[in-house]
Design brief:
Length: 318
């Protein structure tokens, strides 16, 4: 699977020397200042564990896109973005390993979304990173996947046991009235759709200079897209990141991918199926406005989100 050098990977590569040596060190030791999203214990744990996975790769002589990609996922988690386990369509897998990996991912997502991220963040992080390790090795050489598979199974068992203990009522609460069921999630009514032919809907989200962080307006637009997508059958969600021509070409590829990942993760957080989303990066090679090299241009700092829907799609931020 082709990976580009992400902007977040660059951040992580520069920051690794400041990482704490043990898991017991405080989150403040590796916090990134000036982030636009709240940092979490789970995100800090992911930074540590993805860094350790990348280090494992370097020790066995692997210095490729996956090494940088894992660093990028850790750095994105540290910045407060929701970083999910590898989607099943993210790698080219042999049919013999696809089913066990799909079963494992289903159980992993159930644990994460059932409170694992918040209640047992360290155990949940180790399970997620071990799964990504298994996925990566299964694609590279399915005959060498035993170690990562075993690591995942152990980490997953530890996370499930820890989560069960965290969710169990305390002794003093055994006779207490059971907690009321969680209130149903209220989803705003989607705009009325008019039946029509299949079409491709395009939407643009713009970014600040040298930034892969969604603005408040960008977050609202992504949330509106997610509401529209949830309201109708859809597939082939394609997210393409772009930059202007300021900065080095290689850096701009990474920055454009960081922007696309930010939009993808926000769509997934808002209920869009990760399995239907494809992320791409083109850097500065496909400018909306051609102004030459080394030019800052807001109209080129964008992410294009396109998707197939059945009938006209109405996107509303209300």
């Amino acid at each position: 699977m082709k990976r580009f050098l992400t902007a977040t990977a660059i951040i992580a590569s520069l920051a690794v020397m400041a990482l704490p040596a043990t898991a017991e060190d405080s989150a403040d030791d590796i916090a990134v200042q000036g982030t636009g999203k709240a940092q979490t214990t789970f995100g800090t744990a992911l930074l540590r564990d993805y860094y350790d996975l990348a280090e494992d790769r370097t020790q066995i002589g692997i210095h490729d896109e996956d090494w940088l990609y894992f660093l990028g996922k850790g750095a994105a988690a540290r910045e407060g973005y929701l970083v999910i386990p590898e989607p099943m369509n993210a790698r080219s897998l042999d049919v013999s390993v696809n089913r066990p990996l799909q079963t494992a991912r289903t159980g992993l997502m159930k644990m994460l979304e059932g409170g694992g991220r918040d209640l047992v963040p360290n155990e949940a992080s180790k399970a997620q990173v071990a799964f990504d390790c298994w996925m990566e090795v299964a694609e590279r050489d399915r005959n060498s996947q035993a170690a990562c598979k075993s690591r995942f199974e152990t980490a997953m068992a530890n996370a499930q046991n820890a989560l069960s203990a965290a969710l169990a009522p305390k002794p003093a609460e055994q006779a207490a009235t059971p907690a009321p069921a969680a209130a149903p999630v209220v989803v705003a009514a989607a705009p009325k759709m008019v039946a029509g032919p299949r079409l491709l809907s395009d939407n643009y989200i713009f970014f600040d200079w040298d930034s892969a962080r969604l603005s408040s307006t960008g977050n609202e637009l992504v949330a509106a897209m997610a509401r529209a997508l949830r309201a109708k059958p859809y597939d082939n969600v394609r997210i393409v990141g772009h930059t202007d021509t300021s900065g080095a070409t290689d850096y701009n590829y990474g920055l454009s991918l960081g922007r696309a990942i930010a939009v993808r993760d926000e769509l997934v957080r808002n209920g869009v199926s990760a399995s239907k989303v494809r992320v791409e990066a083109v850097g500065e090679t496909d400018s909306a406005v051609s102004l030459g090299d080394g030019v800052r241009e807001a109209r080129n700092r964008r992410v294009l989100v396109s998707y197939d829907v059945e009938g006209p799609m109405v996107v509303s931020s209300n």
